[in-house]
Each structure stands twice: as C-alpha cells, then as structure tokens.
Amino acid sequence: MIGGGAREPLWCQMLADVLGVDVEAFRNADIMPAVALAAIVFADPCLPRSCRRTVTYTPDPQAAAVYGRAYPRFLRLYPALAPLAR
Description:
Strand content: 5-15%
Number of domains: 1
Strand order of the largest sheet: 1-2
Order of helices and strands: HEHHEH
Distance between the termini: 30 Å
Number of helices: 4
Shape: elongated
C-alpha cells in the first residue's frame, strides 16, 4: 500500500483481516520517485529496494471471522444505499 491509507495502521490491519492476506505498507512512498530517478542517474538498480521502508500487517483470524460474519449483511444493505449516491 502507498498513500494516505498506508499511514493509518488500523486501515492497513483491517484490509489484511478482510482480504485474508499480508498487507505491506510503504512508510516512505513519498520519496520513492526521487529514489527511482537517482537509481537511473547513478546506474544503481538496487537503490530503490535498499531504500524502501515497509511495515507488514498479518491477518488476525479472530477479526477476519467477525468481518466474515458481517459481510452478508453488508451485501444486503449496500444496494439500498445506491440511490443516495446520485
């Protein structure tokens, strides 16, 4: 993950729980374009990988079970909200 959502640990953990997979969030995504450019200028293709800082969120089985039980309700309620988006 990159961007604003990647800076919110609760959001990252929630995604890992709902999706059931590890979520890797970049902590320094804002500098990575400059690092990529520097890698080209200095002909160092390993530079981006050596500079990246990430945090990995692993799914919590208990939280995933709660989301799993709530998902059918979400599927029923979501269509009722569609008219509000117009």
